[in-house]
Design goal:
heterodimer; A: alpha/beta; Rossmann fold; 5 domains; 5-stranded mixed β-sheet; 4-stranded mixed β-sheet; B: Glutaredoxin; 2 domains
Chain lengths: 615, 158
C-alpha cells in the first residue's frame, strides 16, 4: 500500500500497535555476534517447539538487530514479561517455552549476574552494562524485526519524514539540523547542517546524497549494527536529507564484508518503495527520490569521501585533492552530501523531538549520543551508546566492567588506525570531539579498543602501521613510502634491532607524513605512533635499550619457560607442541628446550595451571 | 562464458557497474578468471589495464583460484590483541603455505581479513563462511584434522 498523507501513516501505526500489543513476543538477537554463537538455531528451535505445543499462533518469534551485549550471546528477550536471557543455547529453549512463556516462571541460570553482588538481573535495564547507556539511535535495535517495515511504522517510523515533507520547507529542515548541533559521526565531526546548506546552495542540475557505510576501522561495528538492526532509520534520514538539499538520487555505500547488512538493506529499500516512502511524489509532494546500494569491494581508503566517490563511479578508490569538496563537486561532478550511517540515523529523531531536545544532550560542542564498539581486553564486549561528554572511565570501567581479572587496563585505543592510544591517566577525559583531538586521538567512527598490561604498545603501533601501509592507496608519496618506512622502523624496535637514533627518525618521519599527505588516511596515519610515543615512551625505550618487551608480546624478545613449582607434570603440553620441544615425565616438572622452541605459545595456551611463563 | 554474460546483463554493460560485475564474478567462481576479465573488458569497453588495476586494488578480488575450503583469519584490532597473529602462524605451519595461497592439493585456501565486525568473538576464524569464535591454535588444528578426514576416500586416492 502507498502512504499518501501523514494522517494515513499515523492511523496505520495505531492499527499496527493495537494488533501487536497483547501478543507475547520472543526476540532473539540476530546480530552477527549472536548468530556466530548459534542464535539461528535458537530461533529455529523456538519455532518448532511453539508449533509442537500449539502456541505458534499466540506467540511472536522474531530476529531483531544487535542487542549490544555480544559477550554473553546468544541473547533472548521476552515481552511482555520483560525477561532478558543470555547465553541461551538451543537446548535451553524448551525450558523457556514451558516455564517462562507458559507459566511466567523466570529461569535464574539464564539471567545476567552482577559479578560483585552476585544478584541476578531480570530486566535489561538492571544490568550495569545497559544502565549507564542512553540508547537513542539504538533504541529499537533489540526490539524491531529489521525485515518488517510495519514494525518500524508501528513505533512511529517515517512520521518525521511525513512531517518534513508536509509541514517544513527544505530550508527549515536545514535550520533544524543546524540548530540541533549534530556533527558527523564518521570521524571528523563536521557540522551536518552546514554541510547540507552548502550542498543546497551549490549550483547543479542534479544532486546526490550518500550514506557512507564503508566501516573500515578494524574493531568497529557500530554502523553494521545500525544497518542490520534498524535500516529504516538510516533510509528515513537520507530521504529527509535529500529533500533538504534537493537530491533525487541516493546511494548507500556498504562493505561487501557485511553481507547481512546488504541483504537487510535490500529488503528495507523494497519495502520502503512499496509504502511509497521512496519513489515518485512522496507523501503527495512534488518530491521524488530513490536509493541504490553500492557494495564496497574492500578498500579502507574508500571511507575517505573523495575516494568513496571514485569507487561509486566504478574506479579505483583513490582520493583527490580537496577543495573542491563533494558538496560542490561530488558523484559525476554533481553536488553531493556524504554522511555516515549513524549521522543519518540521528536525523529522524531530531525532526521528531526537535533541535532543542537534541542540543540539550551532550556537551557544549558535541551534541547528542555516540555509539561505540567496546572491544579488546574488557569484560563486557559489545555495542554501547552513551551521551557525549561521559568520561572514558565511566564507559570502560562501569559499562565495560574493566579488564578480566587478574589483568589491569593500561590504555584505550580510540578512533581506529587514524586515532590514538590514550593511557589510563587520561581516563577522566570527557568523550567529545575536541577533548579527544587535543589528547592526540580522535573521535573517529567509534571503535574503542581496550588494552591491558599484556598489550605491547609498540606492537600495537606496528599493527596499525602494517594495516595502513597495506591500505594506503599509493597515490601520494608521503603516505605510500612513509607508512612503509615507519613500519620497518617499528618492526626493528619490536625485534630488538633498533637504536636510539631510529626512534628519532621514526618521530621525524611521523610528523612529515602527517603534514604532507594528500588525504585523511595519510594525515592521520602517524597518530598511533605519535600517541604511543607521547604516552608510552618507556616501552619503546625498554625495547631499544634493554632488548626487553615489558608486556611479553614481542616474539624476538621473549622466552617461554616452565615454572617447576607450578607444573604438575600432567603431560598436556607435550603432544600439542609442534616442535617436540617439551620433555618430561608424568608428575615431574617439564622443561622447554630453548633451542627447539619457536615461541608459538601453544603450551601457554593449553596449560591449565599457569605453569608456562613468558620471561 | 555464459555465467559472465548473465552477470553483465543483470547490471548493464556500463563502466559504473564494473565493480559490481566483478564482485558477482568473484562470488560465482571464487576468483576472477582471466577469460572472464577479458570478456568484461570487451563488453563494457574498458581497457584491460583499467580492469586489472581495479581487480588488484580491492581486497575483495583474487586473481588466483581458491581451494575447496576457504580459511580466513580475522586480523582486526581485537583479534590481533587476542592472538590472531599466532593463528596465522599456526596455519602457515599446518598447511605449509603462506597467507593468500592455496595448498598444492587444492584443499585449503588461507587468507587473512581485516575485521569482520564480530569483535566480541575474538580471535575469530571463518571457515567456508562459518564463524569459529574464540579460536585457539589447538582448536584450529582439530578443525583442520576434521576437514581433512571428511574428504572422500576416492578423492584422496586420486
Amino acid at each position: 500500500m502507498k502512504i499518501r498523507t501523514l494522517e494515513q501513516l499515523r492511523a496505520l501505526a495505531e492499527e499496527l500497535r493495537a494488533a501487536r500489543d497483547h501478543r507475547p513476543c520472543v526476540r532473539v538477537c540476530g546480530g552477527t555476534g549472536c548468530r556466530a554463537r548459534g542464535s539461528e538455531e535458537v530461533l529455529a528451535r523456538f519455532k518448532t517447539l511453539l508449533q509442537e505445543t500449539g502456541l505458534a499462533e499466540a506467540v511472536d518469534v522474531k530476529f531483531t538487530g544487535c542487542h549490544g551485549l555480544c559477550e554473553r550471546g546468544p541473547l533472548v528477550s521476552l515481552a511482555p514479561q520483560e525477561v532478558f536471557y543470555q547465553g541461551v543455547e538451543a537446548d535451553d529453549v524448551r525450558a523457556i517455552v514451558t516455564e517462562t512463556l507458559a507459566r511466567g516462571t523466570v529461569i535464574e541460570r539464564l539471567l545476567a549476574q552482577d559479578p560483585v553482588t552476585g544478584k541476578h538481573a531480570r530486566r535489561e535495564q538492571e544490568i550495569p552494562f545497559y544502565r549507564r547507556q542512553h540508547r537513542l539511535v539504538l533504541r529499537f535495535n533489540g526490539i524491531l524485526d529489521p525485515t518488517d517495515i510495519r514494525e518500524y511504522i508501528a513505533v512511529g517510523g517515517y512520521q518525521a519524514l511525513g512531517t518534513a515533507l508536509t509541514h517544513l520547507t527544505p530550508e527549515e529542515v536545514i535550520e533544524i539540523i543546524e540548530r540541533s548541533g549534530l556533527r558527523g559521526r564518521g570521524g571528523a565531526g563536521f557540522p551536518t547542517g552546514k554541510k547540507w546548506r552548502m550542498a543546497r546552495a551549490a549550483p547543479g542540475s542534479r544532486k546526490y546524497v550518500i550514506c557512507n557505510g564503508d566501516e573500515g576501522d578494524p574493531g568497529a561495528f557500530m554502523d553494521r549494527s545500525v544497518l542490520e538492526g534498524n535500516p529504516h532509520s538510516v533510509i528515513e534520514g537520507m530521504i529527509i536529507g535529500a529533500y533538504a538539499i534537493g537530491a533525487a538520487q541516493g546511494i548507500i555505500y556498504v562493505r561487501e564484508e557485511y553481507p547481512l547488512a546488504v541483504r537487510t538493506l535490500e529488503i528495507a529499500l523494497a519495502q520502503a518503495r512499496d509504502y511509497g516512502f521512496l519513489g515518485e511524489e512522496i507523501f503527495d509532494s512534488a518530491f521524488s527520490f530513490d536509493i541504490e546500494i553500492v557494495r564496497g569491494a574492500g578498500a579502507f581508503v574508500a571511507g575517505e569521501e573523495t575516494a568513496l566517490i571514485a569507487a561509486v563511479e566504478g574506479r579505483v578508490s583513490e582520493p583527490r585533492q580537496r577543495p573542491p569538496y563533494p558538496v560542490h563537486r561530488g558523484v559525476w561532478g554533481y553536488p553531493t552530501v556524504i554522511n555516515n550511517v549513524e549521522t543519518w540515523a540521528n536525523v529522524p529523531l531530531i525532526i521528531e523531538r526537535g533541535p532543542e531536545w537534541f542540543a540539550s544532550l551532550g556537551t557544549a560542542t558535541s551534541k547528542g549520543t555516540k555509539i561505540f564498539s567496546l572491544v579488546g581486553k574488557v569484560m563486557n564486549t559489545g555495542l554501547v551508546e552513551i551521551p557525549m561528554g561521559m568520561t572514558l572511565r565511566e564507559l570502560i570501567e562501569e559499562i565495560g566492567g574493566g579488564a578480566p581479572p587478574p589483568r589491569e587496563i593500561k590504555a584505550v585505543q580510540i578512533g581506529g588506525p587514524s586515532g590514538g592510544c590514550l593511557p589510563k591517566a587520561l581516563f577522566d577525559l570527557p568523550i567529545d570531539y575536541e577533548s579527544l583531538t587535543e589528547a592526540g586521538a580522535m573521535m573517529g567512527s567509534g571503535g574503542l579498543i581496550v588494552m591491558d598490561d599484556r598489550t605491547c604498545m609498540v606492537d600495537v603501533a606496528r599493527y596499525f602501521m602494517d594495516f595502513l601501509r597495506d591500505e594506503s592507496c599509493g597515490k601520494c608519496l608521503p603516505c605510500r613510502e612513509g607508512t612503509n618506512r615507519m613500519y620497518e622502523l617499528l618492526t626493528a624496535i619490536c625485534e630488538g634491532r633498533a637504536t636510539e637514533s631510529d626512534l628519532e627518525l621514526l618521530e621525524e618521519l611521523a610528523h612529515v607524513v602527517k603534514e604532507t599527505s594528500l588525504c585523511g588516511l595519510g594525515q592521520t596515519a602517524p597518530n598511533p605512533v605519535l600517541t604511543t610515543l607521547r604516552y608510552f615512551r618507556p616501552e619503546y625505550e625498554a625495547h631499544i635499550r634493554e632488548r626487553r618487551c615489558p608486556a611479553g608480546v614481542c616474539k624476538a624478545l621473549i622466552r617461554y619457560v616452565i615454572n617447576a613449582e607450578r607444573c604438575t607434570g600432567c603431560l598436556a603440553c607435550l603432544q600439542p607442541c609442534p616442535q617436540q620441544a617439551i620433555s618430561g615425565q608424568l608428575k615431574q616438572p617439564h622443561v622447554i628446550s630453548e633451542e627447539r622452541c619457536i615461541k608459538c605459545g601453544i603450551c601457554y595456551e593449553v596449560c591449565q595451571f599457569g605453569a608456562v611463563e613468558i620471561v | 562464458m555464459r555465467e559472465v554474460e548473465a552477470i553483465i546483463e543483470r547490471y548493464g554493460a556500463e563502466r559504473r557497474h564494473v565493480i559490481a560485475i566483478l564482485q558477482d564474478i568473484q562470488a560465482q567462481f571464487h576468483y576472477l578468471p582471466r577469460e572472464a576479465l577479458l570478456e568484461v573488458a570487451a563488453r563494457v569497453r574498458i581497457p584491460m589495464i583499467d580492469l586489472y588495476s581495479i581487480a588488484t586494488f580491492y581486497n575483495g578480488f583474487s586473481l588466483i583460484p581458491r581451494g575447496e575450503h576457504v580459511i580466513r583469519v580475522c586480523l582486526g584490532t581485537a583479534c590481533h590483541l587476542k592472538g590472531g597473529t599466532r593463528l596465522v602462524e599456526a596455519l602457515e605451519r599446518e598447511l605449509g603455505v603462506r597467507q593468500g595461497e592455496m595448498t598444492s592439493d587444492g584443499q585449503f585456501s588461507f587468507e587473512t581479513v581485516r575485521c569482520v565486525g564480530a569483535c566480541a568473538l575474538a580471535p575469530l576464524v571463518l571457515i567456508d563462511g562459518r564463524y569459529y569464535p574464540k579460536m585457539t591454535q589447538r582448536k584450529l588444528t582439530q578443525v583442520l584434522a576434521r576437514l581433512r578426514r571428511a574428504r572422500p576416500a576416492a578423492e584422496i586416492a586420486r
